[in-house]
Amino acid sequence: MISQAHSATLIGIEALPIVIETDLGGHIQGDGERYFVLVGLPDAAVKESKERVRTAMRNSGLSFPNRKIMCNLAPGDIRKEGPWLDLPMAVSLCAVQHDVPQSELDGTLILGELGLDGTLRPIDGAVSVALMAMEKGFRRMIVPEPNAAEAAVATGIEVYGVRTLLEAVELLNGSNLFTPKRFEHEQGPGLVSYDVDYADVKGQKHAVRALEISAAGGHNVLMTGPPGSGKTMLARRLPTILPPLALSESIEVTRIHSAAGEKGGRPGLIWERPFRSPHHSASHAAIVGGGKNPKPGEISTAHHGVLFMDEMPEFERPVLEALRQPLEDGVITVAWVSNTITFPAECILIGAMNPCPCGFKGYPEQKCVSNPSSCNKYAGKISGPLMDRIDLHIEVPRLKPDELLDSSDGERSDVIRDRVIAARALQHARLGGHRTNAKMSPREIKETVELDEDSRDFMRVISARLGLSGRVFDRILKVARTIADLRGDEKIGKSHLAEAVQYRERSEA
Predict the structure, then answer these.
(1) pLDDT of residue 11
(2) Structural contact between residues 162 and 144, judged by C-beta atoms closer than 8 angstroms
(3) Which CATH number among 3.30.230.10, 3.90.1150.10, 3.10.180.10, 3.40.50.2300 corresponds to the domain 2-172?
(4) DSSP-assigned letters across all residues of 248-267
(5) Which secondary-structure segment (H or E) carries 335?
(6) With a threshold of 0.85, does the pTM exceed it?
(7) N or C: which end of the chain has fewer CB within 10 A?
């Protein structure tokens, strides 16, 4: 007799179905490992499953067959990774010994890592597997209890969380002690709270205004200023003025963080907008994704959130250049062996840099000690094409003593967020879905940005004076559209364009 159990494996953030076939041969003397044969391109972690399964079954009071065991992981041309095939492998062994009905395994997808005592440990990628199971028509899922809340997002499929191998066997044998996990998301967005606020920021009204525009339209920002001017403080508060994640966005964020092993043990879906701040020594694979077992990089774990790159010129040039395509397309494609994997990467990039290597060029606080050639080399580390993809360029000077001593609070984040939500609602109605002005195509710009003759003359003069490229010209129109949306204006006027231009003027001059 051959038993079959259904499970899955992850490639990137996509789950693929796996069938675990188990066959028992003749009786053996002893229980040597060579009599438990595992085939189907298992990686090292999957190969070790044999010992975990054997020990967990015996410590759970379940019989382990004293016979030759052949276990096949189908399809055989896909490499299986990770320890979450432990539970379905153990259940398949139970089925081949008639300890659980084979009929109960049909239509049931099982995954989980076993401890030696038979307890189950949480796994990565449960959301992706649940969505795949729903698409493939499975009727039931059995997962470790900590993963049940996130897996329950899949509709039309019963999700059961179990704590041990023995509980999984009891469930498959018809025990009525288990109830499927129900997904409840109504309270999700209300659970998000932040311990930082733009009310904490003194001065820097120009920078806060630019970040409000960034949040409203999904625009990228580059902040330039001397050390200690508050660039990091400003960037870290950007998620506090972003709209709450919609359910579909929360599912996407959770899929990425779960596949990357970044959930940190949190149950259920992730409702916070991501904020990622990699160190400038981070490798190319760490930023864009990939590696031996391909995982999402920082730009993907920032999906629907913020990627903050402090000391931006200090990042390796190939790392910075790799950002160009995802900033334009919202996805990043990583080559892997003979295949490619595409990860979502739609985020707001916030870059921060000093004006020169020492940090004080053009500022009176301290004398600049950098020579002109090093200043030029430092500024040139961020290429022109990448600069073109950054919509808002702002200076963040150090505060004056009077501003530091000012006891009044800045505008609260929740007040700014209300304006951002209203502006995004206009964009969603205009563009469809959850798209923002920053993602408008040239055709959509032409349809949604109408300029009167006065505005056309203004842009004609500005374009000639600054030598704007076609890409930058379009991005100015996108920012102007966002400024108009924040004001609730249907048409774009000269005042909207003038404010949008000031965020490009220094970089283009």
Answers:
(1) 87
(2) yes
(3) 3.30.230.10
(4) HHHHHHHHHHHHTT-STT--
(5) strand 331-336
(6) yes
(7) C
